[in-house]
What does this fold into?
Amino acid sequence: MAGRVKFWLVLCAFIALPHSNLVAGPAPGDVFREYTWYKEGGDAGGALRVGGRIGYEGVITLPHDFDLGHATKAEVVIEKILCHDSTRGLAIEINGNQWIGIPEADAITYPQREYQHHIYPVVAIPLSYLNQGKGNRFQMRVDTEHPWDWPQNLIYGVHFRIYYDPAKKPHPTGMITSPALGSELGRQVRLEAEAQSPNGRIKQVDYIGHYEDVNFEGDGNYVQWHYHFFHGKIMNHIGSAESDPYRVTWDTSWVPDQRQLVAVAARIKDSAGMIYLTEAVTDLSFDRPGLSVELCKPYRIPKKWVTRSGEKEQRFDVTGDLKRAVAAQLVWSSWSPGYMNGVYVNGQKVFDAEGPKYQYYAHRVTLQDISPFKQGVNALKTGKTPKVNGKMVHGMEVNWPGIMVLIQYAAKQ
It folds into this structure.
């Protein structure tokens, strides 16, 4: 029991710990709403261009009817792509109030503006900056200083999250009923929850986990509550359900072996837009006989990783016995992968191309042939994007933390 209490205290401290001047987002037990905005259609896959020479809209008026009754705090979540390297100084202004700087992710090598990234910073905003009802407005900017006179970030979503006093605000409630505290998780894990709300029907239950996994969040932190957003919709979480018993099957066959215990929580959203984050089920561990999964974290990440500018190379280390390896995955996020030109491991091409041009894309490529891999240090590179009709094209941007590698082994090591 003492071990469980210690783990829970450590987990709560992690959740509450500010990251630079970022805030950590929702914690178990929180009650909140999310008012999300993103650009419908247009170029760059529906992105807001901030800075640059074309297409920036300026002040944006939100259509939402903000509810500030019994509100306790507020924050804004930004779906941000670096886009043009060396862009700095992203900031947001709300309803004519003081500009708020959007900090960089500390785990990205400084200066972060030199490394392609797609991150989701969460920044506290004063409640006094927001107005009850409709008509809230915001605008964004970046510094005009730029080495090639075209500073630009792309924004795929802006979320205003309002927290409420749970004792005063009617909200959904519930709990995870499966798995139970202290369970051992196999390859297929059944998650279920009880959920109800005084506001009406339950719209959706989203399961999230706190464990070590690939870093689609782009901030370089592999151990965290894993989920993020794209155009305001939750992505790369455990899964979602819309009807009782809100059942989701979690396939853990590519989840890395864990050095720490695992926790799972559920975001319960009702038809009125209220969200409750359940208390976490903790002390979970994996028991997957005959299966081991190694996460090989990339390092020596190149600056300005855009394939039009030439071959770019990173490193990753393999510690497992490759004689027992059965498959591998390459996992990364990119922008405009329609212009990629191959991925190579130790000089051998292992993958050609996938994905759209001028849009965000999340890659998870399974490799059955792992013969190019070797124990110890491995080199992974992307090919140079060739010219098209004699003209330079965009190329693929590989976002931080680079191309992550997962390796499945047939038995525990």
Q: What stands out?
A: Confidence is low (pLDDT under 50) at residues 1-21. Residues 292-409 form a domain with the Jelly Rolls fold (CATH 2.60.120.1200). The CA atoms of residues 36 and 159 lie 4 Å apart. The longest strand covers residues 152-164.
